[in-house]
Automatic annotation (TrEMBL):
The keyword Transferase applies. Residues 91-232 form the GST C-terminal domain. It is an enzyme of class 2 (transferase). Keywords: Transferase. Its EC number is 2.5.1.18. Belongs to the GST superfamily. Phi family. This is glutathione transferase. GO terms for biological process: glutathione metabolic process; response to herbicide. Signal peptide: none annotated. InterPro entries: Glutathione-S-Trfase_C-like (IPR010987), Glutathione-S-Trfase_C_sf (IPR036282), Glutathione_S-Trfase (IPR040079), Glutathione_S-Trfase_N (IPR004045), GST_C (IPR004046), GST_Phi_C (IPR034347), Thioredoxin-like_sf (IPR036249). It comes from the Eukaryota. GO terms for molecular function: glutathione binding; glutathione transferase activity. The lineage of its organism: Eukaryota, Viridiplantae, Streptophyta, Embryophyta, Tracheophyta.
Length: 241
């Protein structure tokens, strides 16, 4: 069977979101690079996969998809197993909480955090423009308010959707990973439960817990050690060097 194809570069956060899910379910896949310099993402061939001319696009047999969160859910549904049940669709309430915190990532967390990543890392490296400090300051103010909500939630539950690891947590991986390489990573120090959720020390505990619960799966830091997500980390190093 032809392997699953992910179109786009692993250095893109939205592509990485999809790769992290493929890694979690252990599916075979191939990353097909799309050359932005050559405007390959705006080519008729790629527009047929993603009409907005963006990455990622995804192909699994006859199924062609775009939008990284929708692709991720497709992967987690199709390749679900007893070890990797990250949408919890067997339980109406748990699945609803996964949806709630997946939406929170998309509509609250990401809009507040991603401008800091773009301004501090991406734009200076790819466009040669200096960081716009006003944008960063405004975003950090918004992010602090979002993190207040996360802190309250994570002081009651180990993970966002409840006391189980889910797509809601995983979905935060790519942008948070980059954020932690900005000069503003220390913001998380003011939020002990959020820090623990993300942080290295707890990352070990999360890993242990996941192993106990599911018998497999690296989360967060562990994910970055895996081969293809490793490309994403290498890309990060290139950006911050
Ligand atoms: N909501 C989309 C966003 C995709 C997106 O913004 N992709 C960026 C790269 S990270 C892109 O292709 N940018 C090129 C463009 O918009 O022309 C998703 O989650 O897949």
């Amino acid at each position: 069977m032809a392997p699953v194809k992910v179109f786009g570069s692993a250095r893109s956060t939205n592509v990485a979101r999809v790769l992290v899910c493929l890694e979690e379910v252990g599916a075979e896949y191939e990353v097909v690079n799309i050359d932005f310099q050559a405007k390959e993402h705006k080519s008729p061939e790629h527009l047929a996969r993603n009409p907005f001319g963006q990455i990622p696009a995804f192909q699994d047999g006859d199924v062609v998809l775009f939008e990284s969160r929708a692709i991720s859910k497709f992967i987690l549904r199709k390749y679900k197993s007893a070890e990797a049940d990250l949408l919890r669709e067997g339980d109406l309430e748990e699945a609803a909480m996964v949806d709630v915190w997946t939406e929170v990532e998309a509509h609250q967390y990401n809009p507040a955090l991603s401008p800091v990543v773009y301004e501090c890392l991406v734009y200076p490296a790819t466009r040669g423009v200096p960081t716009n400090q006003k944008v960063v300051d405004e975003s950090l103010e918004k992010l602090s308010k979002v993190l207040d909500v996360y802190e309250a939630r994570l002081s009651k539950h180990t993970y966002l959707a409840g006391d189980f690891v889910s797509f809601a947590d995983l979905n935060h991986f790519p942008f948070t990973f980059y954020f932690m390489a900005t000069p503003h990573a220390l913001l998380f120090d003011s939020y002990p439960h959020v820090k623990a959720w993300w942080g290295e020390a707890h990352g070990e505990a999360v890993h242990e817990e996941a192993r106990r619960q599911h018998g497999c799966c690296c989360r967060y830091q562990g994910l970055s050690e895996r081969a293809n997500v490793g490309d994403f980390c290498v890309a990060l190093l290139i950006i911050i060097m």
